[in-house]
Protein: Glutamate dehydrogenase
Amino acid sequence: IAKNPGESEFHQAVKEVVESLMPFIDENPKYNHAKILERMVEPERVMMFRVPWVDDNGEIQVNRGFRIQMNSAIGPYKGGLRFHPTVNLGILKFLAFEQVFKNSLTTLPMGGGKGGSDFDPKGKSDNEVMRFCQSFMTELQRFIGADTDVPAGDIGVGGREIGFLYGQYKRIRNEFTGVLTGKAIEWGGSLIRPEATGYGAVYFADQMLKTRGQDLNGKIATVSGSGNVSQYAVEKLIQMGSKVVTMSDSLGFVYDPAGFDEEKLAFVLELKNIRRGRIKEYADKYNVQYFEGQTPWNIKCDVAFPCATQNEINEDDANMLIKNGCYVVSEGANMPSTPEAVEVYLKAKILYGPGKAANAGGVSTSGLEMSQNSMRLPWSREEVDARLHQIMINIHETCVKYGTEKDGFINYVKGANIGGFIKVADAMMVQGVV
Ligand code: NDP
Structure:
């Protein structure tokens, strides 16, 4: 903590991992002797840079850009870019640290990284977003490459931003390579990549339910957020027969007791991706309740999918979820539950899938996009979806293998942390002190 002042999210993420890994490391002292954890919490490299750009009024704006290259023991650095005014070094280090374990769990050869900027795309014109992305990439391009570091999207970085970033990379480097994932299908993207994180979180919940002989059909689901992850979690939940009753954005949530259907979801996609409006408009259109400034965790449900941002479920929310009968939490977002909320889930022994396992479908499909780019051959929608589904099943099995406790309870936090750790740690051991 003294070494990394003010990086509270990073401290939180490291503490959770270290706590669940310590008994395993005590049983396997070779990792301790090699100081693996001490090395893993130190990024291999951190880049921080100025991003100047000119807004539509001709005024110069200055933002800050970052890329954290956390760990490359098992493959090129891989992880998204986040554009949001709250972005700072601590948040990106937490995300990069989590990414190392998540990428290892996917079974694909990817190291961990993360980056972004405190730039806020909200309220900016397309031209302003383009000028910002071009300036950001002018600096970032010297640190990344298809075999070095492959960024993707995250909060505030979707198809539009990836397009502008890729265009600038190609222009400066004069090469058409898979340096970014999340590209559009016409120029090197993978089918199912936009859907992958949301679909994956639903597949993971389905696997957790199977351990109790159940499935998602007929279950009532609450979802937070209305961005990329939420949209496709809702789509897959509808397909699997669940009734989704909430979606949200940073200003509030809508409660639709009749449930979202394909037509209502199409409205949300148009609202959020094209018009970039607020979720409140959904309540006005479909005449349902809107709760300003609130999160959806007091709504009765069987399964909850936090898909917005970190620390969006606190201890009180977690208690409320359980009081209302919720017994499955599958995290589409990264670290959406506070440590106190996680304690509540583990004490209540519900089916709790932490983000680094449950939302790994996105980066897995990014890994599949990299493979297709290297081969210069696209796979069909069915093929990518089948591979994604199998990867989520494998991640679930890894969690069961390392997380099952004596009484049969599956502690997915422990399972994901140990399962993700072993491969990276073993690679670091044989690569010497680097
Ligand atoms: P988007 O930008 O597409 O959507 C984010 C959603 O969360 C929006 O509805 C946004 O509301 C809401 N939100 C953002 N910040 C806050 C906040 N501080 N408080 C309340 N609501 C907030 O991002 P994604 O869907 O891509 O990402 C969502 C989460 O999933 C993040 O935690 C991300 O790290 C994680 N994730 C994403 C992956 C991906 O493939 N995209 C992969 C793995 C994890 P508003 O519209 O008002 O901003």
User: Anything to note?
Assistant: The mean pLDDT is 97. The radius of gyration is 21 Å. The first helix runs from residue 8 to 27. The pocket of NDP is lined by residues 153-156, 158, 197, 225-229, 249-251, 307-309, 332-334, 359, 362 (CB under 6 Å).
